[in-house]
Design brief:
By secondary structure, the protein is α+β, with helices and mostly antiparallel strands. Helices cover 40% and strands 23% of the residues. It has two domains: 149 residues, Jelly Rolls, CATH 2.60.120; 82 residues, Arc Repressor Mutant, subunit A (Orthogonal Bundle). It starts with a helix and ends with a helix.
Length: 235
């Protein structure tokens, strides 16, 4: 069985057998030669890159900064579907239109690649097509775990899992796993975890009082008790 088939079968495994951890793993650009396909654009903070329902003409690789994918619910509330970090690819869909909007949370540099160019290149490089299938499968798995987190975890458990997911990404990149930079606001975190901004702020303050974290400034969280956070995340 191929690696891709193994991965897709894993996605169909029963939910009770799946770890309910959030995943911000580093996923590097698909293949060598990829940078030659697109043009680099600079996006100011809080500017949308594309909107839900727009024709999906391009895919975007995040080079610098943080992007969020979001949808506006019928009641007008925003729900953040995912965060995208440097190395991640946005808009990797074959639905004809984008299923979500994408917004730069910080000043962002992206590589824009027309889908028509990408499809021609994939016809010449089968390994690129396989890589994109794997990226789509990994994103689907991360989305499922996010949904399980929203449905099954308490506020404290969600925030602990969120901090540990960012910590794991730091470790993958060779950065300090205990120094978590937060480029997103408390409201962004709340909209991602299905909480209110007050609950996010109150829970982070409680974590600090209990010696789990330190908050030197609003954009930095220092993990002091990883085991304690892991116990909360698993509760």
């Amino acid at each position: 069985m191929s690696t891709v088939e193994d991965l897709m079968l894993g996605l169909m495994a029963p939910a009770e057998n799946v770890a309910r951890d959030l995943d911000f793993s580093y996923r590097p650009a698909p293949v060598e030669g990829w940078p030659q396909l697109g043009t680099v654009q600079h996006i100011p903070a809080r500017e949308d890159i594309f909107f839900d329902g727009d024709e999906a003409r391009n895919v975007f690789e995040v080079l610098d900064g943080i992007v969020c994918a979001y949808r506006i619910l019928p009641d007008g509330e925003r729900h953040i579907v995912s965060f995208y970090f440097p190395g991640d690819v946005i808009g990797n869909c074959n639905l004809g239109t984008y299923p979500y909007s994408a917004q730069a949370l910080t000043p962002v540099r992206v590589r824009r690649i027309p889908r028509s160019v990408l499809e021609r290149y994939m016809a010449q490089r089968p390994e690129l097509a396989q890589r994109f299938l794997r990226l789509a499968a990994l994103e689907l798995a991360a989305t499922r775990d996010h949904m399980l987190c929203l449905a099954a975890k308490s506020a404290e458990s969600k925030i602990a899992a969120f901090l540990l997911a960012l910590s794991r990404r730091n470790a993958e990149l060779g950065e300090d796993p205990n120094q978590i930079k937060l480029p997103m606001t408390r409201l962004d975190i709340a909209d991602y975890l299905g909480l209110t901004i007050e609950t996010v702020s109150r829970t982070l303050s409680k974590f600090r009082r209990n010696g789990l974290i330190d908050l030197p400034r609003a954009t930095l969280v220092v993990l002091l008790d990883r085991k304690g956070l892991a116990a909360l995340a698993d509760s």
